[in-house]
Amino acid sequence: MSRLHFASALLPSGWANDVQVVVAAGAIAAVTPGVAPTAGDERHAIALPGLASLHSHAFQRGMAGLAELRGDSTDTFWTWRETMYRFALAMTPDDVAAVATLLYVEMLEQGFTRVGEFHYLHHDRDGSPYADIAEMAVQIAQAAEASGIALTLLPSFYAHGSFGGAAPHAGQRRFICSVDQFAAMMAASRKVIANLPGANIGIAPHSLRAVTPDELGAIIPLADGGPVHIHAAEQVKEVEDCVAWSGRRPVQWLLEHAPVDQRWCLIHATHMTNEEVAAFARTGAVAGLCPITEASLGDGIFPAREFLDAGGLFGVGTDSNVLVGAADELRQLEYGQRLKHRQRNVLSGGAGRSTGRTLFDHALAGGTRALAQTAVGLAPGARADIVTLDAAHPSLAGRAHDAVIDGWIFAAGGTAIDCVWAGGSKVVEGGRHRLRQTARERFNTVVRRLVA
Ligand code: NGQ
Ligand code: ZN
């Protein structure tokens, strides 16, 4: 058991001062506002609950910044994807573990205490399953365990190269499963995470490009009540191809044909009509926004103002992990809206409200729902996932409460983070994860070989 004391802390009921938090067996046992610190309390200034990166492809951290060289033809999402596939084809299970470990260390340093790993790099380099069909999931779980981050493993079902059951191409061979293989992979993956603290599992039909309607129907029961994540409507070409295939747009098709409800998370959902926005918001499903990757890949701008006005809930993910940061994702989300609408404080939710606070509340609630967590934030029963900010950071000086969040998101970024507890264990101190150095060395060795 340990006792922490915060001069101020963001609780589910709002900001409170002089908050004592008791941590036992990795969870928050008690939260008491308005009490002076007692001897033996570890004291900090400002506490926030950790956020989730609800959408990550860990292996892609290995190629961050390596696809910024212009090619012979116009560079797009689709040409980036070819580069990404070439990188994926070269990686061994140990490479994936090295890359994922550093990524999760970085996520924790940046205020993410849970990751939704949308995991589709399943098979050996020739496309044949490993002797253990969940071999790559084992590597992901080991990285999560070493770093301390809570894992929501989302094994991805991927079977086709495009809409209508088109054959996959050779570059996709490591991702491909039959429905039966996927059922075996889910069973094996459940065992992989069974003893991992804080872990849970869902499923991730990759996209309507990769999964037929029949396959979607066959795999949804394998979630067994857990989360269901799917990429949808990220690119205009994807919307056009979906209309050509079905007469429906991707989000529209899902809302009409799949049992989309609060268990579901539609990743990106960038391109929607107003009708799709309203219907999506009504389902209670979460929009899994990845603003930095969506900007990096030239996807487009999510209709966030309209979606929030319709009562929709979003969370954020780091997706390609080209740059990892909770503040960075939320800032990019708001800045995209500012550039689009040529206004300021677009997503604050009303006069006198802090934009940073509103973004933070959404990311917390959306991440919690999308990754099927029952307890939210700094409250008894929740995992003890706590982030403290450095009150002496110049961008936080003189601020209190919501203004601190604004200072973090819009002015300081990750440099404002001081300590992070993951499942009650203090893994980040002074902004550095205890494994930073060893994880970097291992990662660098792998990546030097991969880029050579
Ligand atoms: C992915 N990433 O699965 O890693 C995808 C690219 C695809 C993003 N969509 C592959 N950002 O969607 O076909
Ligand atoms: Zn993705």
Task: Quickly describe the structure.
The radius of gyration is 21 Å and the shape is globular. Helix 3 (135-147) links the parallel strand 6 (112-119) and strand 7.
Describe this structure in words.
There is one protein chain. The chain has about 450 residues and is an alpha/beta fold. The chain has helices spanning about 75-90, 95-110, 135-145, 180-195, 215-220, 235-245, 250-255, 275-285, 290-295, 305-310, 325-340, 355-370, 400-410, 435-450; strands spanning about 1-10, 15-25, 25-30, 40-50, 50-55, 110-120, 150-155, 200, 205, 230, 265-270, 285-290, 315, 385-390, 415-420, 425-430, 430-435. Strands 3-2-1-4-14-15-16-17 form an 8-stranded mixed β-sheet, with helices on one face. Helix 2 crosses helix 14 (about 435-450), helix 11 packs across helix 13 and helix 12 (about 355-370) crosses helix 13. The longest helix is centred in the N-terminal third of the chain and has 17 residues, at about 95-110. The chain is globular, with a radius of gyration of 21 Å. Bound molecules: N-carbamimidoyl-L-glutamic acid and zinc ion (ZN).
